[in-house]
Amino acid sequence: MTSLVHGIDRIAHLDLVGGGQVYVHDGYAYVGHMKPPHGTSIIDVRDPLKPRVVSTLMLDNDRSHTHKVRVVGNIMVVNVEQNDRHAVRRAARIPEVTQTFRQGHGRDPSEAELAALLNVQAEMLPTLRRRLVEGYGDGGFKVYDVSDKANPKELAYVRTHGFGTHRFDLDARYAYISTEMEGYVGNILVIYDLADPTRPQEVSRWWMPGQHVAGGETPTWSGYSHRLHHTLRHGDELYAAVWYAGCRIIDVKDITKPTTIGAFDYHPPFPEPTHTFMRVPFPVAGRTLAVAVDEEHAHTPGQLHGGLWVFDVADPANIQHVGMWHLSERASPFVEHGRFGAHQFQEHMKDTRLYTAWFAGGLRVVDIADPTTPEEIAWYVPEPCAGAKAPQSNDVDVDDQGLVYLLDRDVGFDILEPKI
């Protein structure tokens, strides 16, 4: 096994409650937390050696989490999504699973047997049953004024449908929201105009053929395997990660009529879903590139872990795969504890380095200067915080000074200084 740290130093740490996204803007780090009651924290990092939490928005129930956050100017947008959403949806099958078990065994399943059949933790069953009875109508997104970082002010709360909103993009005018909507299977894109942040207005929708079941479409896949994770805007194009359907490029010259102009799908044979697809904002080795990262879920021995992809997108109608990078299991002593493979890189690039949160593999810095042969040039594997068996590096951002902000899914927030 290689050393845990190479080419990068930790300069500060907070035992922060685990998070889903970190976004650094104008001397502050914004963190969306994974679990209620913690919602969104704002951390003063103007002195990166002494980060200081200046406010945390708390949630008033356990039905939702707000684990994603983006900021433009003094406007902050956070998602509102059903907490434990996948477990809740599996729990909806309790009557069906119980009946099938009863027919085969002549009795009802025990709580442990039922949990195993549903792939949930037995201790969660009472909560899941309660949530099924309560229903869920809180999903969507919220808009805040954060001109006073210690006292964010809610400006708007837009409710969407189903689970609500997952990850999203934001610019000075529009929010590109990945959400469930009535009549569709799985998350689609809904673009909102935030010209008046107190009254977001829907502009348009985009979805993959087969998702709009209320419009007469029929999915060619099962369940929710084909859905939008989120898009990232570059010029007049959106780069969309669509889970087990791979990648899409969407033309938004006319923001009211998003149009698919490119697609690439590598499922199968690759086993992990596409989490993020991002345009590289400058030529590399004379090529027009985009990069993608997969999200590691439950790993199957013998299969590849989630990794990084490099694509040539000069012709969106003919996307070409030109390079890939994977992390060896030997790179971390924590490979057998929790998720190990890739998850997310910083959603902007100033040079050819990709800073990538790699779950139990920590932070990996991969240079795509030669896009056909990406090269790891630095890494940082955090020691697990108290009570954890392994780091679960979940998200990362890089500020204008090149400092790196690494967020753990369970607990921990590190500020790192590259030495490369």
Percent of residues in helices comes to under 10%
Structural class: mainly beta
Give the total of beta strands: 30
Low-pLDDT stretches:
none
Shape: globular
Radius of gyration: 21 Å
Order of strands across the main sheet: 1-27-26-25-24
SS summary, helix count: 4
How would a crystallographer describe the biggest sheet? 5 strands, antiparallel
Strand content: 35-45%
First-residue to last-residue Cα separation: 21 Å
Chain-averaged pLDDT: 96
Structure explained in plain terms:
The model has no long low-confidence stretch (mean pLDDT 96). The longest helix has 12 residues, at 94-105. This protein starts with a strand and ends with a strand. With 420 residues, the protein is mainly beta. The chain has a five-stranded antiparallel beta sheet with strand order 1-27-26-25-24, with no helix packed on it. Helices cover 9% and strands 42% of the residues. The chain has four helices and 30 strands.
